[in-house]
Amino acid sequence: MTDLRLLSLDFDGTMVGPWLEGKAAVSEELVKCLAALRKRGALLAINTGRSLSLVDQGMELFPAIPDFALTTEREIFRWTKEGWEPFSDWNQQCDRDHEQLFTEAALLLAEIETYILNERQARAYREYGRLVGLIAQNDDEMDRIVEYLRLQCSRVANFSFQRNSIYLRFCHAVYHKGSVLKALQTRLGIQPQETFAAGDNFNDLPMLDPGIAQHLACPSNSVEEVKETVRRHGGFVADLAGGDGIAQALRRIYPQLA
Q1: Which of 12, 110, 141, 255 is deepest in the core (most CB within 10 A)?
Q2: pLDDT band at residue 256, thresholds of 50, 70 and 90?
Q3: How far is it, in rounded angstroms, from Cα 125 to Cα 162?
Q4: Tell me: the pLDDT tens digits for 8-22?
Q5: Last residue within a domain, chosen from 137, 172, 207
């Protein structure tokens, strides 16, 4: 069997969690598995919707610094002795493409915001004064918002979004957890058969693709769409939640993992 060279793990709900009473569970089994695999030469990439600053906050919970942080479902940062640094020219192109997209989608975004304020129970999320995402009161409300947005996306080329539970971020259609993982693989010379990917929510679906990672898994707390996708591609749906479920998956690949 091909050794794993790259682990692409979602953070919230996958590496840590689920969250209970404001505290996320951390799996000691996953900590041990990751330490053993990294000793064997595997690289760890957190593939998350979190920004880089929120990755740092998250790592206060988990006792390991990843080799790479794939942030906001689209950017690549590498850990160095001096801290995080952008990896290759990917982030610059990503920024340019999103700047152009948000300029072209200004009218559509204004209409979306009007719709949200008048007809939905959700609030806008802004960065530097620009509407970049939405936060719904519950999953049912976000389901309705997603139905509306799917009808609107075609109005602007490459306008899309990524959803994680009640949170949604607008984005360029080319950029998601799958494409950023593929970009990292290309730059490292790592193949899909050498890659493990795991996630639990809608925004993880693009990386749960055997064309990108041939070893797939999800914890028991995953949304049904994720479970169905992982099963369809021959991956492992754990019967344990969060990090315990991911450790369970890794031990199926490496039964003798110390």
Answers
A1: 12
A2: confident
A3: 14
A4: 999 999 999 876 666
A5: 172
